[in-house]
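Me: I'm a chemist; would you kindly supply a protein sequence with its structure tokens?

Assistant:
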Amino acid sequence: AFDETSDWIIPMVIAIEGFTIDTDYFRQFKYQKASLNYWMPGISAFKELGGNIYANLTLLIPVGNETLTDFYGNETDGFLIGLAPAQGIYYIPKSNFGITLGIGMYQRLLTSKVYKSDFGFKAEIGLKF
């Protein structure tokens, strides 16, 4: 909820991610396919910088599993856990409804055998309701 007297917002977050890993990348690990499935509980806090502009600090904990397929078709499952911080700047309207925009950086550190880390930039669009 948005409190007009506070310069902090702590919303509920739903994240959808997708990524493709080049097949050549797997050869160093002797796998032909990897499937990673995880959910990421955590916190996301927004601090008002002025007007409708906010700084964002997010800390999520990816928890799930990975299924690895070797070149013989054998599959192995493994537990996956990690750390996923992100930082950014957002435009959030003061109204109860509206479009939000954000840019920032993200990091992923995972216990995966083939996808141990990821660092990058992100652009986001959302709906405030």
Notes: The beta strands are 8-9, 31-39, 42-50, 53-60, 63-70, 75-91, 98-110, 117-128. Residues 28 and 82 are 22 Å apart (CA to CA). The longest strand covers residues 75-91.
